[in-house]
Each structure stands twice: as structure tokens, then as C-alpha cells.
């Protein structure tokens, strides 16, 4: 079955409440709108592109919504975003892209110059335990001796 989905959405960052405002030509109910929203696997990315930050970024796991009583919602639908985990954080260190994965508890070091090269996998490296110079030295040491 095909649906026409025409909505505006706003996220209240204080309550984690996601509000969908349906437009007139909608053929999907709020339950279907939420299902479609989740199907696209939305997530949050926060990044710092400043060279001092070494292109640092964190990525959340996919956002999911809590179930709600559709009978309470007609034109406007409110759903709450469930608490989410951080998925990974990454940083650019010279020729290498370093990704620490919180879900699989591992760190991958990938070559930016040779995308065909398999990543180097190491036990999880917590970026918070290092300043930028120590992190860079740690990564380059791993690359040199692997």
C-alpha cells in the first residue's frame, strides 16, 4: 500500500518529545508516520570541523519512538524518543580515520589514502582519556607496529 506523507516535525530537546503536524493531503495515520520515520533510521551526528578538534564527531544509535495511544491524537501526533546510546565517535588523524565503536567495544583505524585497505581493529580506545597529542601518538604507534 502507498501513502502520502506530508508532515512537519519538531523535537523538543528538553522533553525528547517529537511532534508531527499532519497536513491536509495525508493518507497516513500517526502510527504509520512514526513507522516510516523509524524506517529511515534517523540518528544524531555532532561534529567539530575545526582542525584543533581533529574533525571529531560522535554518532548516536538509531532513534526509536515509544508507543502511544493514537486515539488521543488526531491532526497532531506526539511521541517520545526513547533514550539512545552513543554508537561511535571518530577523529581524523593525518592519513587515518579512527572510529571507536561503543556498541562493539572496538576501535577501527582506516586509511584515508587507501580505501581498499582493511581497517586495523584494536580493543576500544576511549578518546576522553587522551589529549589530542597523546591520542595521535597512540594511534600512530598502533599503525606502526601492526
Give a structural overview:
It is a single chain. The protein has two helices and nine strands; from the N terminus they run ββαβββββββα. The protein has helices at residues 30-39, 132-144; strands at residues 7-12, 17-22, 45-47, 57-60, 76-80, 86-93, 96-101, 106-111, 120-123. The chain is elongated and about 60 Å long. The model has no long low-confidence stretch (mean pLDDT 86).
- Give average pLDDT, whole number: 86
- Helical stretch count? 2
Measured between the Cα atoms of the first and last residue, the distance is 52 Å
Percent of sequence in beta strands: 25-35%
> Looking across the biggest beta sheet, what order are the strands in?
3-4-6-7-8-9
Shape: elongated
Poorly predicted sequence stretches spanning 5 or more consecutive residues: none
Task: Give a short account of the largest sheet.
Answer: 6 strands, antiparallel
Helix proportion range: 10-25%
Order of helices and strands: EEHEEEEEEEH
Class based on secondary structure composition and strand pairing: alpha+beta
Number of strands: 9
CA radius of gyration is: 20 Å
Amino acid at each position: 500500500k502507498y501513502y502520502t506523507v506530508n508532515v512537519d516535525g519538531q523535537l523538543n530537546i528538553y522533553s525528547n518529545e517529537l511532534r508531527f503536524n499532519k497536513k491536509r493531503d495525508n493518507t497516513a495515520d500517526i502510527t504509520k508516520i512514526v513507522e516510516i520515520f523509524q524506517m529511515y533510521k534517523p540518528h544524531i551526528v555532532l561534529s567539530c570541523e575545526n582542525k584543533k578538534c581533529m574533525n571529531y564527531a560522535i554518532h548516536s544509535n538509531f532513534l526509536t519512538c515509544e508507543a502511544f495511544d493514537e486515539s488521543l491524537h488526531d491532526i497532531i501526533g506526539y511521541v517520545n524518543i526513547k533514550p539512545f546510546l552513543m554508537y561511535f565517535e571518530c577523529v581524523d588523524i593525518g592519513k587515518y580515520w579512527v572510529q571507536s565503536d561503543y556498541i562493539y567495544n572496538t576501535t577501527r583505524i582506516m586509511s584515508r589514502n587507501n580505501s581498499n585497505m582493511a581497517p586495523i581493529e584494536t580493543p576500544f580506545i576511549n578518546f576522553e582519556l587522551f589529549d589530542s597529542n597523546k591520542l595521535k601518538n597512540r594511534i600512530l604507534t598502533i599503525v606502526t607496529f601492526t
